[in-house]
Amino acid sequence: MKFEDKGFLVSKNKYNENSVIAEFFTENNGKVSGLIFGATSSKIKNFLLIGNKFNVQFISKSQNKAGYFKVEIDKIFTPFFLENKTKLSCILYSLNLIKILTVENQANKYIYEELQKLFELLNSDKWIQKFIFWELNIIKLVGYDINFSDYVDNNITSNNFYVTTLDGEKKIPSFLLKISDAEINKEILKDGLKVVGDFLNKSVLIPNNINYPSLRTEFVKLL
Description:
- The chain has 223 residues and is an alpha+beta fold.
- The chain has five helices and seven strands; from the N terminus they run βββββαααββαα.
- The protein folds into two domains: 2-78, CATH 2.40.50.140; 80-222, no CATH class.
- The strands form two sheets. Strands 1-2-3-5-4 form a five-stranded mixed β-barrel. A two-stranded antiparallel sheet has the order 6-7.
- A hairpin with a 6-residue loop joins strand 6 and strand 7 (171-173).
């Protein structure tokens, strides 16, 4: 098996002194894992950061044997955020989310396109609000959608920032019902992240025996 593609580095783990096991989410082949030999060489080690995009050549002698990558940097993304702990944490969590929710060798160009959009929103105003909808869209693209309006009791009067759920015990930040340009403070955004995290955990992760990602918890704490 052999192919050439473009892909974002999703994860990497040390294999031996000079090599790593890497996962890329590629444009045409989905998530693919394999070895990168010479990963500690000066030629690539400074670019081999999670979130960066590469030109990759994947080679495997058979489906039953581990393959390996030859990589060349295509576009640098992550280094621009190394001094911003919150956004860097967001990047690491986002790529981890792709890792745990996607299946090996299953192409999904929509997810690939969303990865490119991730770095655009990180450079925009109101990036936290945009990220929340980005995360919801990723969850939707792997088959789990939610319409928060279905959980709202329209007969209960709520303020401009929260709406009451049908059970009357919880409140959902109203911006989750529709994308808005209105200014939203950080506490309301954090509440929105908690609601989405609860949906992710109960509807997606637990049914599939996947642990809640600690990287998401770390990201939310930094806000």
